[in-house]
Fold each of these.
Amino acid sequence: MNLRFYKYEGAGNDFIVLDNRKGEFNSSLNPEAIKKMCDRHFGIGADGLMALQLKDGYDFEMLYFNANGNEGTMCGNGGRCIVAFAEYLRLINGETNFLAVDGLHYAKISEKGGWVSLKMIDVTTVDIDNEAMVLNTGSPHYVLLTNDLQNKDVFKEGQGIRYSDRYVDAGINVNFVEDMGTHYFVRTYERGVENETYACGTGVTAVAMAMAKTKSQTGDIATSLRVLGGDLKVRFNYDGKSFTEVFLEGPATFVFEGAIKL
């Protein structure tokens, strides 16, 4: 069969997006097919695959699959990209409420175009693992402050943490962050992709929270972050205990569309 697809990227975090409003996706694809589609040598190439489908009470539902073919937890940049896709399909007009694996999400598209603000879940728990902070922003994240991040072997060090005894079973995304003064520079090793990605939305959200806690910042906080694929922003309110009104903001760009034979 020939499957129609769309390719989107958010700060270099790239995704295959499927229009599943007719419900054909579940019967036609399996984990191995998804893995092949995401393969950069034998398929389309992507960090993950998303399917947009209809859901009563919501504008749409987002299904997300990691590049290894397995269904994943929340993907922030993916969420922003699927919002842009829903606008392209004329399902929404500037604003939306949609369902993802971690619950309801609100999003708004800037009038300038190409900039999507996505509301993320509240976070109330931050754990400590030696020098790192561990928190769940829709996906689990390990945040470690470091120096000379540009030259760090993120694949080797990130893989070592992700497959350590503590995290090997459930897996964890590993974020290395360097304080650049005006912004934070972030590089991430992602579980499911099992490699470094150009950006991670739930990852930079976790980093912004961890750094606010580290610096004892409270109130309304807006954080600028640079990743390998560009710039992202995270804003939230922190009262010293809970992170609320959390928004991940950045570009969501259509790349191309096509068909693949499965």
Amino acid sequence: MRARFQELDWRATPLGELVLRRRWDPVFDREVHEIKLNDEFLMSSLFTVAEVELGRLALAGLAAGPLDVVVGGLGLGCTAQSVLANPDVRRLVVVDALGEVIEWHERGLIPAGAELTADPRCGLVQGDFFAMVRTGAEFDPASKPEGLWHAIVVDIDHSPRHHLHPSNADLYEPAGLRRLADRLRPGGVFALWSNDPPDEEFTAALSKVFADVRAEIVRFDNPLQQREANATIYLATTASVR
């Protein structure tokens, strides 16, 4: 008999109480993994459509050839898996501030962990993504100098206006976005997940830095609330020639 609810791990972190739990959902008739920070759900395997689309859309417009990609935010690994599903990906670095989440993947407590840790293209790095962008630090300190990236994909904050930590706010201003764009190759893509509808002010900030900007709405069914839910994916591309 399946356990209806199981707390797989609990940790005290600088951001608060972090919990990984597994439960059986009778509505969906399947096992569900969830990550909570304090009283907020960071991630649920019930709803991963937007996270998968984030990885797919980030790479969809890039020319064929070996791709080097950074993902900010590991979570349940869905975006990283989506990126690795593209056979052109040569290298993926996934940065997460919480070493506990990386450890859960390495221990196999999260289903995606086995795939991510076994793929030689993928490296999991503990670090503050926002601080790395702010200071120009290497995304993977253990590697040789990385050069520029084809895509930087971010799923950390709830939206450009709702942050997990106040210090994250500077990334969403033109100066922060410019620092991020400087890490991308010509024609490179910055992709961002948001739980809010498209934000005109943030889109305008992106347009000050990137050559091409659009916001894609991803819709998916939410049987728990008996309604259609949606998320926004921002896609910003640097100029082909600088």
Amino acid sequence: MTAGIPPVRHSIQTVALPSSEAVRLLGKARIGRVVFSHRALPAVRLVNHVLLDDRIVIRTHTGAALLGPAQDGAVVAYEADEVDPVRRTGWSVVVTGVAHLVRDPAEQLRYQGALEPWIGGGMDQVVGISMDVITGYRIR
């Protein structure tokens, strides 16, 4: 803030999205954040994803911190958004669901074929996240 200049006031509003619209926006997004517990602390990882079979599918590497919660069927959150900081508009979608390590070889191959990881280096593990609770809002 510059001395002598009052702050600009904007009437920014958030509007809740219906679940169908939130899922549509999530399906268009390619990057998101998976939130889980790791060593009793919150952890967040930036990942790319695809929606298949009513779940969020991500790929990761052997030894990734997310694999522990996925093997245990832990509840996780997944968030994706799109924000225009100049226009101060955008949207955010948060999904809460159960993470599962995909073990079926046929499912693994299908999901691996549908999602090319952005990060190289043996992203051979597939994690599916159920979409149990879906919330979203649009910023206007």
Amino acid sequence: MFGHLWKVTCHLLIAVESDLPLAYCWGTLNSHSSVLEVQPGYRGRGIGREMVAFMLMVSVKNRNPLLEIQCAPETSAVFWESMGFTTYTICYKVYGRRVLDMPRQLPDGDPISVKISFFPSYFSGVPGEEPLAVQNLLAVEIPGTKRLMLSRIVAHYYQPD
């Protein structure tokens, strides 16, 4: 009925011996509206880490390197930091971000060095203006095109102060 408006994804981690759900993730690690939760009686046993590791694989499979979550409750920030996320606070809410390293297999050809610079949306183009981040990587021209394939997917978040 609502398939054309929403896409709902739920991943469950179920105990083999009891068929009981131990943890779930509605959505992905790419949205503040997603929920990842471990049943209270099973917390502190590594189940959350297993669920996050699985969701990281889902992000890689979907070629989505930019991860952003809300740490709710705020005390979960320590867990998310241990999973490689950088946390920050805006308007009394704690969020976490992580950029996944996603290497790609280059086609045959002569690799060239490429420099990718990220600037804020308000970039004025004034000489000497510093980029937010710079990525140096290899690329190969795709045969028969004037396009390059980069050695990894490149992405960057503007990290609030």
